[in-house]
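hey m, so remember when u said the tokens were messed up on ur end? i reran from scratch. heres the input so u can diff it against urs
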Amino acid sequence: MTDIDRRRFLNTAVLGGATVVGATALGSVAPEAAFADVQPDLDPSAPDPDFAEGRITGINGSMLLVTGSDKSLHRIYVTSGTSIWKLRPTGADAAQVGDGLYARGVLLDDGTLAADAVWLNIVNLTVLITSIGKDVIHFDHHGDRVVGHVVLGTTAAVYNSTPPVSDLTQLKVGYHAQVIGAWRPDTNEVDLATVYSAA
């Protein structure tokens, strides 16, 4: 889908005239996509106009009010076709004031970002595994302690670029890993989605 088609599609969705098919028609909604450089041609020092990040400070119907880490204010419009991730694919009702947010979409003329994908509380951490319990893995992230919660039916491991598996037994204390998960706001705790290990 070209950028012009995407803009027209989301404009129509915001104005209520479309049966929206879902953000997967516009690109990946996997958690890893939140960190992708989707517009590599842009000046890396310039902000991407079709991306917003920050914490949700208010919710007004389908509009998420977000304060960015740079204190900028964003209005994120969630359509019936917006794909939302909060540890797993979910609905707009999962968004709460205080949640962290990444959003990709199309910046409309009024400054609103019509979102095709929203990731809530997503984190991407490089860590050292310091201990492993029954339902918890402790990590060191650049000197900070992080508690990772294993979520039955969701948490998976990827070993040496193999497909994800639910078997976490190859994770070992002292190994380095990359963790993608959902942060529990205002804590050092993360619900684990995927742990990437070179084991």
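this time it looks ok to me. Residues 60 and 77 are 10 Å apart (CA to CA). if urs says something different then somethings off w ur setup not the seq
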